[in-house]
């Protein structure tokens, strides 16, 4: 997974007055958990732009005064209810041998024939929560929908991997195509329906002949 570097300054004073002063100066107070003790630091709000205002998932290399670098992932973020400015961020420190939980975005690849025929595409899960070691975190879940027909879906079960654990039931639908009033049936689907009808007719004929005997 790609990493973003954020430069900040470790802060010793963590009281309300000190926190308010940081925000007034355009800085965001942050805390890194997961180590021996919480590590408090602050950084300019613009430094978090590529981390927060993006659909992508990233790990973070937090570079503090003195050259200390802490690898982490964002766990929680708070915005001002009126101005929407970032007012606080919690991070969780990464260790090579400790799994971490993270939301990974889902990307759809290709064009669904079901949608082309008038079906309605429902993107149920745009992100999936997973648990993995830091070096096994994927950037995306890429899902090919080029064979997804009307009435079909793609579930979590098709995305399982030995590299991570998906924290959703296997039956969870990620994307599906539902029937719409304007939907049309393709030639392939016509053939499938005809084959099914012929099979039913054969069964009915056999049952009728058995009854006559």
Per-chain topology:
Elements: E1 3-7, E2 9-10, H1 16-24, E3 27-33, E4 39-44, H2 49-52, E5 59-63, E6 69-79, E7 86-93, E8 100-109, H3 113-116, E9 120-123, E10 127-132, E11 141-144, E12 153-155, E13 165-166, E14 173-178, H4 187-212
Parallel strand pairs: 1-5, 3-7, 8-11
Antiparallel strand pairs: 2-4, 3-4, 5-6, 6-7, 8-10, 9-14, 10-13, 12-14
Describe the structure.
The protein folds into two domains: about 5-95, Ribosomal Protein L25, Chain P (Beta Barrel); about 100-185, Ribosomal protein L25, C-terminal domain (RNA Polymerase Alpha Subunit, Chain A, domain 2). It has a seven-stranded mixed sheet, with helices on one face. A four-stranded mixed sheet has the order 11-8-10-13, with no helix packed on it. The protein has four helices and 14 strands. It has helices at about 15-25, 50, 115, 185-210; strands at about 5, 10, 25-35, 40-45, 60-65, 70-80, 85-95, 100-110, 120-125, 125-130, 140-145, 155, 165, 175-180. The protein is an alpha+beta fold. Helices cover about 20% and strands about 35% of the residues. Strand 3 and strand 4 form a beta hairpin. It is elongated.
């Amino acid at each position: 997974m790609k990493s973003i570097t954020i430069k900040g300054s470790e802060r010793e004073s963590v009281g309300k007055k000190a926190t308010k002063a940081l925000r007034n100066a355009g800085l965001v107070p942050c805390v890194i958990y997961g180590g021996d003790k919480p590590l408090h630091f602050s950084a300019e709000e613009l430094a978090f732009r590529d981390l927060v205002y993006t659909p992508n998932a990233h790990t973070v290399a937090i570079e503090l005064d003195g050259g200390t670098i802490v690898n982490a992932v964002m766990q929680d973020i708070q915005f001002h209810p009126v101005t929407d400015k970032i007012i606080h961020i919690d991070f969780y420190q990464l260790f090579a041998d400790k799994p971490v939980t993270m939301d990974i975005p889902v990307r759809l690849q290709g064009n669904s024939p079901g949608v082309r025929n008038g079906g309605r595409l429902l993107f149920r899960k745009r992100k999936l929560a997973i648990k993995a070691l830091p070096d096994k975190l994927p950037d995306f879940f890429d899902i090919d929908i080029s064979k997804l027909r009307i009435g079909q879906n793609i579930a979590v079960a098709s995305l399982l991997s030995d590299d991570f654990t998906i924290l959703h039931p296997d039956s969870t639908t990620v994307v599906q195509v539902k029937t719409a009033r304007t939907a049309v049936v393709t030639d392939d689907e016509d053939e499938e329906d005809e084959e099914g009808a012929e099979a039913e007719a054969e069964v009915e004929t056999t049952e009728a002949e058995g009854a006559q005997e």
